[in-house]
Design brief:
By secondary structure, this protein is α+β, with helices and mostly antiparallel strands. Helix content is about 30%, strand content about 30%. It has two helices and five strands; from the N terminus they run H-E-E-E-E-E-H. A five-stranded antiparallel sheet has the order 1-2-3-4-5. The protein is globular and about 45 Å long.
């Protein structure tokens, strides 16, 4: 089930399976940053860590969900206020990780 997820996330998940960690960086804000004419710094938009005991998804530097692939135990960070699209990403991630 794809849930309308971008292909870049599918590729990110596959890269994390192979390398243990994969990151997509983006700018938190577009345009100028602060009072200067410099661009906003790149930060982690999406990160997936695939370790032997758990697979984790990070959004904007926050760990939002972790799944233990052996017992299918899933822990969601309820303090992270996710957008509707991010909720779809979390649901997609949980489904992918539980199949691992």
């Amino acid at each position: 089930m794809r849930l309308g997820i971008d292909d870049e996330l599918e590729l990110l998940y596959k890269k994390a399976e192979l390398e243990g960690e994969a990151i997509i960086r983006d700018r938190w804000t577009s345009g100028n940053y602060g009072c200067c004419s410099t661009r906003a710094p790149l930060i982690e938009k999406y990160k997936i860590k695939n370790e032997s005991k758990e697979i984790s998804l990070y959004l904007w530097g926050n760990q939002v969900v972790k799944v233990n692939p052996k017992n299918q135990r899933t822990t969601v960070n309820t303090e992270y206020e996710s957008t509707n699209y991010e909720k779809k990403i979390i649901e997609w991630f949980v489904q992918k990780a539980q199949k691992a």
